[in-house]
Amino acid sequence: MSIERSRDPVQVATAILALAQQQTRALYAEDFAAVRALADERDTLLAGLAASSPAAVAAVRATFERVAAIDRENEALVRALLAETARALQRLRAGRAALHGYASPARAATSPGAALDHAG
């Protein structure tokens, strides 16, 4: 029986915890497609768990607290990755600006007649 069809909240919660841990590994690998696919799997499992009794859900509370802690760490990692991407883009923009600044004098110096004295 697959986890998706399981009615055992402990199995479902354990699977969700494993998916959260896999998301962490995918984030460190910067595999954002895998992060999204894992999130979709989690959503599917959570939807199945919603039909469980409140007592059954309470039985897996500690597991979900661990999942929430991992999610907070993953969110912090995403923020750090986004900040690093923003810094890399800024460095790229600065490099392009510098390249354009150097390219203009070089182009002028290689144009025909650039070495001739036009002043007389």
Shape: rod-shaped
Q: Classify the helix fraction into a percent range.
A: over 70%
Proportion in β-strands: under 5%
Order of helices and strands: HHHH
Structure description:
The radius of gyration is 27 Å and the shape is rod-shaped. It is mainly α. Helix 1 packs parallel to helix 4. The protein has four helices and no strands. Helix content is about 80%, strand content about 0%. The protein has a domain of about 80 residues. The mean pLDDT is about 85.
What's the layout of helices and strands?
Elements: H1 9-28, H2 32-49, H3 54-59, H4 61-110
Helix pairs in contact: 1-2, 1-4
Key descriptive features of the protein:
120 residues
Quick recap:
This protein is an all-alpha fold.
